[in-house]
């Protein structure tokens, strides 16, 4: 076992207190450090967390952004959704492969770069979209692809790439009541706190409000489940994933009206 791998796994375990419920964060930390999750890292985590190797590899198998083989220092994911293809992602991929001298598998001979296609990056309206070492890059046309290749050749960290590439533009033309209405700041949360959780949940049920994911899960049921747990500690997790091809809802809400989003979390039971 290499000292680097063992050290990366130990740091992840220490950071998250050897809590098996946080194993995903540990796997991500190991990968950020080592650029992949090796069998040795799996072994260290397995012994420390009392989880089987099968349980850990089930996670690395399922999540496409977790790697079981060594990857380059620059890991690029180019979106391959239908909207990205319409905007020229195939030409972008060809430019990157040629400029970075990548193999058919998307690897550079010196191990510096790994390029892979992914189903969607959640930036369908800003395509061709790219994820570079965890940073979302919008509008990667052929010219920008050549610029990216030049930065990689010069070993410029992704964090130091032009900030405007990583700025997610608001492209909504018809915003509707959620983003377009002139709501009084704080009015909704003040009323929710005034009437209490039971009436607030009842009104959510009457409203028919549902989650925007594929399941359309009723919001009042989510709040009921959270409030029914007998505990002194509760956590509110905002899932800002934009994983369905062709969708654009979470990014505009969280970037255009971040205060509205944060206020929506506060009255959660």
Account of the protein in words:
It is a single chain. With 269 residues, the protein is α+β, with helices and mostly antiparallel strands. The chain has three domains: 3-62, no CATH class; 74-166, Glutaredoxin (3-Layer(aba) Sandwich); 176-265, no CATH class. The chain contains twelve helices and four strands; from the N terminus they run ααααβααβββαααααα. The chain has helices at 3-15, 23-34, 39-49, 53-62, 82-86, 89-99, 142-153, 176-180, 187-207, 219-227, 250-256, 258-265, and strands spanning 74-79, 113-118, 130-132, 135-137. A four-stranded mixed sheet has the order 2-1-3-4, with helices on one face. Helix 1 packs antiparallel against helix 2. It is flat. The termini are far apart.
Low-confidence stretches: none
Order of helices and strands: HHHHEHHEEEHHHHHH
Tell me the name of the CATH class of the largest domain.
Answer: Alpha Beta
Just name the CATH architecture of the largest domain: 3-Layer(aba) Sandwich
User: Beta fraction of the residues?
Assistant: 5-15%
How many helical stretches? 12
Please provide the count of β strands: 4
In helices, the fraction of residues equals 40-55%
Query: Strand order, biggest sheet?
Result: 2-1-3-4
CATH topology of the largest domain: Glutaredoxin
Distance between the termini: 46 Å
Write the CATH homologous superfamily of the largest domain: Glutaredoxin
Oligomeric organization of the protein chains: single chain
